[in-house]
Every structure is written in structure tokens, then in C-alpha cells.
Amino acid sequence: xxxxxxxxxxxxxxxxxxxxxxxxxxxxxxxxxxxxxxxxxxxxxxxxxxxxxxxxxxxxxxxxxxxxxxxxxxxxxxxxxxxxxxxxxxxxxxxxxxxxxxxxxxxxxxxxxxxxxxxxxxxxxxxxxxxxxxxxxxxxxxxxxxxxxxxxxxxxxxxxxxxxxxxxxxxxxxxxxxxxxxxxxxxxxxxxxxxxxxxxxxxxxxxxxxxxx
Length: 213
Fold this sequence. Notes:
Largest sheet: 2 strands, antiparallel
Radius of gyration: 18 Å
Strand order of the largest sheet: 1-2
Strand content: under 5%
Number of domains: 1
Order of helices and strands: HHHHHHHHHEEH
Number of helices: 10
Distance between the termini: 63 Å
Shape: globular
Helix content: over 70%
Number of strands: 2
């Protein structure tokens, strides 16, 4: 059992599986809506991992040739670039009004928030860092915020992501944080905030234009 918990792949999979299981039990969505939410979430996770490993291979090509196991160790550069690309692609589809119900988008928001809580609870018990307490409270707040999103529309979804990122930066400041074994740097959070701002501005502009017409 101790060997399992020392495995860098087992713990993240266990945390994600626990989060998805809890979300499945707690959400009020119909079964087909739960499946659609998970399919969309898993798709984005797969995109992230594929881009991260391919990008890591390009960036550290010669190191991997010398030490093949290096291909399994993702650099922060590869992780950051992959996450930003997937977020940009998802935002583009969101702005293009991809055929997806708002309650599915809200459900993904809730799932991510719940996974954030579970991630930081685990790392709090592992490292006893008070920083984790702040992040647990942050993701708990985002989970509560998700109950008001259907009342506010699309802009609330983006604003929730932006506020969460800003408060995350205020809590962690110059410190990097682990998410399911991946290192998230303050620089990555800064770029995420910029992406959220761009998407929010474009969304509000489009909503204003639609009101005029």
C-alpha cells in the first residue's frame, strides 16, 4: 500500500476518481447530462496531457534521447503551455456558442471546484501548509458561487473563473502549487487571468452588440 501511494501516477488518479465520484453523487443532473459533462471534461484532460507530453518532447528532445525516462517528467513550461492552449481552445468554442447547455458548463465548473477542494485537502494533510487552507476556502467559495451562475448567464461563468484566478494569486503570491502532481506557477496563473479577461471583454462586447440589434 505504501508503494502505491509513493507512485506519482496513483495518487493523482485516486484524487481525481474520488472527486468525480463525489460529484456524480452530489449533482442533481440527469444521468445523460452527467455523462456529457464527464465526456467534455475528460476530453479536455486528454488534450492537455497529449499537448504537454508532445511539447515536453520537443523542448527536451536531446535530454530525452540521452535519458529516455525524461519523457515522463513534464516540465513546468510544457504544463503551462499545454494548459493555456487548452483553455484558449475551450474559450474559443465557448465564444462561438458551441452546442452545449449552460447547465453542462456550470456542472464542469462545479466539478473542477470540487476537484480543487479535494486536491488541496490531500496536500494539506501531506504538508500541513496553511496555504492549502486558503485554497480550500477559495474553491469552496467557487463551488457556492456556481449556484448563482445560472442566474447571471455566460458572463458569470467567465467572471467566476477570473475571480478565482485572481484570489488564487493573492493567496499563493510567489509560491508554486501542486495540482494532482503538476506544478502550477504564479506565472501560469497570471497568463490564465489574462486569458479570462480577454474572453470576458469579448463576451461582454458581443452581448452589448446583440442588445443593440
